[in-house]
Amino acid sequence: MSLDHWENYYRGGLLATCPTGTAGSYDLEVRQAWVSFFKPLPDDARIVDVGTGNGAVILIARESAAALDKHWELHGTDLARIDPVAYVPDGEKRFSGVKFHSGIPAERLPFEDASVDAICTHYVLEYTDVEATLSEFARVLKSGGRAQFIIHHQDSRLVDSANWSIREAEIVKELAVYRRLHQLINIEGNPEKVVEKRTAELRESIQKLKLEHQHANHAGHGSIFRATLEAVQKLLEMRKQAPATTVEREIDRVRAELRAGVRRVKDLVKAALSETDMKALAQQAGAAGLSQVEFSPLVHAGHQLVGWRMTAQKD
Q1: CA dihedral of 293, 141, 110, 128, whole degrees rounded to 10
Q2: Is the domain defined by 3-156+272-314 classed in CATH 3.40.50.720?
Q3: For 8-24, what is the mean pLDDT?
Q4: Average model confidence (pLDDT) across the chain
Q5: I need a labelling partner for 131 at 20 to 30 A (CA). Which of 99, 119, 199, 229 fits?
Q6: Domain boundaries of the chain, sorted by first residue
Q7: Whole-angstrom distance, CA of residue 211 vs CA of residue 217
Q8: φ, ψ of residue 277 in degrees (nearest 5)
Q9: What is the mean pLDDT of residues 19-44?
Q10: 133: closest CA among 142, 120, 144?
């Protein structure tokens, strides 16, 4: 899993990935799945959100506690270097009382045996050593403690979007957009014919990329194409004022960011589970000491498949 990409994402202050509402957090059926999970928890319950990122699920828990007039002890852990209090706008106020634990593997949580009332994960469990993680969850949960997992679905909208992004990145590479831009940026001292040739090559790549973007946009995709076209325009504008070496470093940074993003979506596709996989996962949860394991597809906005919802309880 690409931790660097996620750490850069979190530093940007965004709460969640998709699907999100206008406030940048989970909404509609996805949010309701968490509200319903938190509602029965007793006063003073200890809740641990594993793989918390910038704390989107934790915020839903805080809001649920306030609505129910309950006090819950809230913890968020993540393998990545996180700091939601610093990264999220108004984080100090929004996460008041929450304790975040950075650099913590899901397989080794910093909590005593039978000390946690509820564990939640959102697009996290499937990226871990599942057997070890489930055993760890069973270790820290109290008898009767509950767990809920939102898991990537093999046929979801998110996986479809990820596959589109992978293909778009492949096309950008095939068109050699950044390589040709790199060649054109560092053009000083070359004969006029070389300059004309490299300029024409870059224009050809950009034109083909625009056509690919139009096609993808009609299908509701094209984010990689759009970002590439915008980046190329900015880099060409930058060259008018900055030296070639500065622009070349920025090209390298943009390309590295694209590669990290592709690794992330490839991880997503690899981690997504089919119904057969979910049945096996439910059996693993049972073997780890969790009971009443149930799972079902999770939709958003009435029809968009976005994952699996699995619940369980400690014996």
Answers
A1: -10
A2: no
A3: 79
A4: 94
A5: 99
A6: 3-156+272-314, 161-269
A7: 10
A8: -60, -40
A9: 90
A10: 120
* Residue 126: predicted pLDDT: 97
Q: Quote the pTM value.
A: 0.90
Cα angle, residue 48 at apex, residues 65 and 42 outer, rounded to 5°: 40
User: 307 and 151 in contact (C-beta within 8 Å)?
Assistant: yes
Higher pLDDT, 167 or 23: 167
Buried/exposed 78-115: b ≥16 CB within 10 Å, e otherwise = bbbebebbebbeebeebbeebebbeebebbebebeeee
* Lookup result for tokens 């224009």: 203
Q: What are phi and psi of 305, to 5 degrees?
A: -70, 120
Exposed/middle/buried for residue 199 (C-beta within 10 Å: 0-12, 13-18, 19+): middle
Strands 141-151 and 99-102: unpaired
- pLDDT for res 1: 62
Provide the percentage of residues in the chain whose pLDDT is more than 90. 83
Question: Residue 208 in 3-state DSSP?
Answer: helix
Alpha carbons 59 and 283: distance in angstroms, whole number: 31
Give the torsion sign (CA, 221, 224, 225, 229).
positive
Q: Taking Cα atoms as reference points, which of 276, 62, 271, 70 lies closest to residue 162?
A: 271
**Which residues partner with 74 through β-bridges?**
47
